[in-house]
């Protein structure tokens, strides 16, 4: 198990290198000059040229990237072009807000999706199953930002029940968490239904029913545990989708998280801030996938035996 975890952590290195280089290269060709953005519209050409020299913006892209990664190895993610603050400190100050939003969105998704998926599988082709699958299809099809705007119009502007944005209290979490949790719930519901259908058709399930075991007990104790492997896989992958979805959702709801920080940094062509956010996202996503793989072993002993 230790060797497996070590190898997975080492795989982070090429992932981070690939992601950062691609983003660094794209940002270098995006319109706008960071030095001109920092100094403002009234800055002279000499001031802009001097700042470019200080920041190393006049050097080739590959040289800039090499210098940046050399700093990253020592734990220095650089300083923001826009604010001058340390990138790592800025990202870490926003990360708890993004994790809180992602956590509650995942809770919403799991609470809704797994029971609905189980009921749909056990009542296949019924009216409940049809309604559930239609709702799941709608949830997958809806863009997060569009659904978020609809919620703001209904619950903030028309009914006045919830704040339209900000992070003044935990109540402010309700709409953004539901917004990005709905699309996630739709995917998990479909996976849960499909996995449960495969399991409840197995011989050992039919044998348990033939012996007179209570139907609810068969589903809860025998079928569900064996159906959870693909469901957990999807939940782990959805974590990354929630982080990505939070970028637009945090902007719509003015939520002070890393997603909104990325949007603001892209507008300002703040390359160090964008790269710092993406590095943190890549590390978080990889660690969650590692935890999901480890969790497999506790659910299915056969997978644990492979690690050993």
TrEMBL record:
<feature type="transmembrane region" description="Helical">
    <location>
        <begin position="133"/>
        <end position="155"/>
    </location>
</feature>
<keyword id="KW-1133">Transmembrane helix</keyword>
<feature type="transmembrane region" description="Helical">
    <location>
        <begin position="9"/>
        <end position="27"/>
    </location>
</feature>
<dbReference type="InterPro" id="IPR000515">
    <property type="entry name" value="MetI-like"/>
</dbReference>
<keyword id="KW-0812">Transmembrane</keyword>
<feature type="transmembrane region" description="Helical">
    <location>
        <begin position="167"/>
        <end position="188"/>
    </location>
</feature>
<keyword id="KW-0921">Nickel transport</keyword>
<feature type="domain" description="ABC transmembrane type-1">
    <location>
        <begin position="95"/>
        <end position="296"/>
    </location>
</feature>
<dbReference type="GO" id="GO:0015099">
    <property type="term" value="F:nickel cation transmembrane transporter activity"/>
</dbReference>
<comment type="similarity">
    <text>Belongs to the binding-protein-dependent transport system permease family. OppBC subfamily.</text>
</comment>
<protein>
    <recommendedName>
        <fullName>Nickel import system permease protein NikB</fullName>
    </recommendedName>
</protein>
<keyword id="KW-0406">Ion transport</keyword>
<feature type="transmembrane region" description="Helical">
    <location>
        <begin position="273"/>
        <end position="299"/>
    </location>
</feature>
<keyword id="KW-0813">Transport</keyword>
<keyword id="KW-0472">Membrane</keyword>
<dbReference type="GO" id="GO:0005886">
    <property type="term" value="C:plasma membrane"/>
</dbReference>
<dbReference type="InterPro" id="IPR045621">
    <property type="entry name" value="BPD_transp_1_N"/>
</dbReference>
<dbReference type="Pfam" id="PF19300">
    <property type="entry name" value="BPD_transp_1_N"/>
</dbReference>
<keyword id="KW-0533">Nickel</keyword>
<feature type="transmembrane region" description="Helical">
    <location>
        <begin position="101"/>
        <end position="121"/>
    </location>
</feature>
<dbReference type="InterPro" id="IPR035906">
    <property type="entry name" value="MetI-like_sf"/>
</dbReference>
<feature type="transmembrane region" description="Helical">
    <location>
        <begin position="227"/>
        <end position="253"/>
    </location>
</feature>
<keyword id="KW-1003">Cell membrane</keyword>
<comment type="subunit">
    <text>The complex is composed of two ATP-binding proteins (NikD and NikE), two transmembrane proteins (NikB and NikC) and a solute-binding protein (NikA).</text>
</comment>
<dbReference type="Pfam" id="PF00528">
    <property type="entry name" value="BPD_transp_1"/>
</dbReference>
<dbReference type="InterPro" id="IPR050045">
    <property type="entry name" value="Opp2B"/>
</dbReference>
């Amino acid at each position: 198990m230790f060797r497996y975890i070590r190898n997975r952590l080492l795989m982070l290195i090429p992932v981070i290198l690939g992601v950062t280089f691609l983003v660094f290269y794209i940002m270098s060709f995006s319109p706008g000059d960071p030095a001109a953005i920092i100094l403002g519209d009234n800055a002279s050409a000499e001031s802009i040229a001097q700042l470019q020299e200080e920041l190393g913006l006049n050097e080739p892209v590959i040289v800039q990237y090499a210098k940046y990664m050399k700093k990253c190895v020592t734990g220095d993610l650089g300083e923001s072009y826009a604010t001058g603050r340390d990138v790592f400190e800025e990202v870490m100050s926003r990360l708890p807000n993004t994790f809180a939003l992602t956590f509650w969105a995942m809770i919403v998704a799991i609470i809704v999706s797994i029971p609905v998926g189980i009921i749909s599988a056990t009542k296949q082709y019924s009216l409940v199953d049809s309604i559930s699958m239609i709702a799941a299809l709608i949830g997958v099809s809806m863009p997060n930002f569009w659904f978020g705007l609809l919620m703001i119009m209904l619950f903030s502007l028309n009914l006045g029940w919830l704040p339209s944005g900000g992070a003044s209290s935990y109540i402010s979490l309700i709409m953004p968490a539901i917004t990005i949790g709905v699309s996630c719930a739709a995917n998990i519901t479909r996976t849960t239904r499909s996995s449960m259908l495969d399991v409840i058709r197995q011989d050992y399930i039919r044998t348990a029913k033939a012996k007179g075991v209570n139907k609810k007990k068969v589903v809860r104790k025998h079928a569900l545990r064996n159906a959870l492997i693909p469901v957990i896989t999807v939940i782990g992958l959805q974590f990354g989708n929630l982080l990505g979805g939070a970028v637009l959702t945090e902007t719509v709801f003015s939520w002070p998280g890393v997603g909104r920080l990325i949007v603001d940094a892209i507008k300002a062509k703040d390359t160090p801030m964008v790269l710092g956010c993406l590095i943190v996202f890549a590390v978080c996503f990889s660690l969650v996938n590692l935890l999901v793989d480890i969790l497999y072993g506790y659910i299915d002993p056969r997978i644990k035996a492979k690690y050993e």
